[in-house]
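User: Reviewer 2 asked us to show a designed sequence for the structure in our supplementary figure. I'm pasting the structure tokens here. Could you produce the per-position amino acids so we can include them in the response letter?
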């Protein structure tokens, strides 16, 4: 059969301008489906149909690829820097103040957009869950006594307080919480966070 176009050959893409976005799109799918530990850079390269070396051209490693896949407006590691070095009995106020500093900063509009864009999206929710567990809760619960399961539960309970605070104060803007001063919010919320950090919890045997 003459005159026809030759069939297009599938293969690895070269380093074009769209390679970075292809890598990020593939990484988002795989991280959402398999989590951080279940995803390798080689798998991402295969999904994006690029050479594995191309990932290292754009990203320093798996951690940076994951962070940029989540598309957070701020780096949680910087926001919570130093929290894990505090004694658990002194950690709650620092956690709440760190959250308030972030949300009272110019990053607030981007954070609101991120939260609204995440709600209702299974893929984005899965990415957010993985990021919260790896980057945020791991710092908050570092050095807590008890079993790893108990520490994770304490971290989950703290997350209910922090996420609820963010949603009600900055997204829903529920009054009078939305207009309360940061010091007042710390005074009211930090004791609950401290209870979840170090208070007595009843776990089933």
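Assistant: Here is a per-position design you can include in the supplement:
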């Amino acid at each position: 059969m003459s005159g026809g176009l030759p069939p297009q050959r599938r293969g690895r893409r070269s380093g074009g301008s769209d390679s970075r976005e292809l890598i990020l799109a593939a990484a988002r799918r795989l991280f959402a489906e398999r989590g951080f530990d279940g995803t390798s850079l080689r798998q991402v390269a295969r999904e994006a149909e690029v050479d594995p070396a191309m990932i290292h051209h754009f990203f320093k490693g798996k951690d940076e690829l994951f962070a940029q896949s989540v598309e957070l407006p701020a780096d949680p590691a910087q926001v919570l820097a130093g929290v894990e070095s505090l004694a658990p009995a002194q950690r709650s106020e620092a956690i709440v103040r760190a959250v308030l500093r972030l949300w009272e900063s110019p990053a607030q509009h981007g954070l609101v957009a991120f939260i609204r864009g995440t709600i209702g999206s299974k893929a984005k929710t899965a990415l957010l869950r993985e990021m919260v567990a790896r980057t945020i809760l791991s710092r908050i619960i570092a050095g807590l006594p008890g079993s790893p399961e108990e520490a994770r539960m304490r971290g989950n309970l703290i997350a209910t307080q922090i996420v609820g605070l963010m949603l009600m104060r900055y997204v829903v803007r529920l009054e009078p919480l939305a207009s309360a001063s940061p010091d007042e919010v710390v005074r009211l919320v930090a004791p609950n966070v401290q209870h979840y950090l170090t208070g007595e919890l009843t776990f089933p045997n």
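For the response letter, you might also mention the following. The domain at 76-198 is CATH 1.10.357.10 (Tetracycline Repressor; domain 2). The chain is about 60% helix and 0% strand.
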